[in-house]
Amino acid sequence: MVVTITGLSALAWLERGPLLRSVADAWVVSDEIAPADAVAVFGGGIDDRPFAAAEYYKEGLVKEVLVSNVRLGPAEKIGALVPQVVATREILLDLGVPENRIEVFGSDLSNTHEEVLALREWAERTGTRSFIVPTGIFSARRVRWILHRVFGDSVVVHVPALNPQEYTRDDWWQHEGGVVTFQNEILKYVYYRIKY
To answer: How far is it, in rounded angstroms, from Cα 64 to Cα 182?
Structure first.
């Protein structure tokens, strides 16, 4: 019995790359990108989400780019850092999105659930029927679930999963950030399923 367990453990260690790649492949969900009324840039992911949103705009997939008005952190409150909503807007402008095509939604948003509720309010007010909401590879399952939970069938939502700059689904376990993000997202997903 000990020899069997030791042998299986050694095999799992030696084959951890393909095994952990398969785990990520099973976890990560990503929708095909399709034309939509707007793209929504949620908080976080400032190194990839605004860039994806600008690309969707330039490709003619969306007519409007929405930016989540996330809660200010302590450093932003004292002016040591630029607020994320301002930084995101500046990135979009630098990437060629016209100022009149960028709109901020929500107020003092502190989590994905609040962002989705604010996005639904914006959609109801404007009559928007479809969105693209880009997010990270490991958060895509949770973000997609809460969007579909809140919107139901009333709005079409596409959630493409973006690889962060530091790692991909093919090597995430080799980077501390990948390991931490993946384990945190599993916990967040379970929490969201229970709470909402």
So the answer is: 31
- Show the tokens assigned to 76: 């932003």
- For residue 126, tell me if it sits in a domain: yes
Residue pair 158/184 in contact (Cβ under 8 Å)? The answer is: no
- Of 35, 91, 86, the C-alpha closest to 64 is 35
Q: How far apart are CA 93 and CA 190, in angstroms?
A: 37
Phi and psi at 153, nearest 5°, equal -95, 5
Q: What is the pLDDT of residue 17?
A: 87
Range(s) of the domain holding residue 148: 29-165
Share of the chain above pLDDT 90, in %: 86
Local structure of 68: helix, strand or coil: strand
Rounded Cα distance between 140 and 136, Å, is 6
For residue 101, count CB atoms less than 10 angstroms from its CB and return exposed for 0-12, middle for 13-18, buried for 19 or more: middle
Q: Looking at residues 52-63, what average pLDDT do you find? A: 98
C-alpha 33/C-alpha 179 separation (Å) is 27
Q: Is residue 21 part of a domain?
A: no
Other CB atoms within 10 Å distance of the CB of residue 160? 20
CATH code assigned at 81:
3.40.50.620
Q: How many domains does the chain have?
A: 1
DSSP string, 29-43: --PPP---SEEEE-S
The H-assigned helical ranges of the chain are 2-14, 16-27, 49-58, 74-77, 84-94, 112-126, 140-151, 176-195
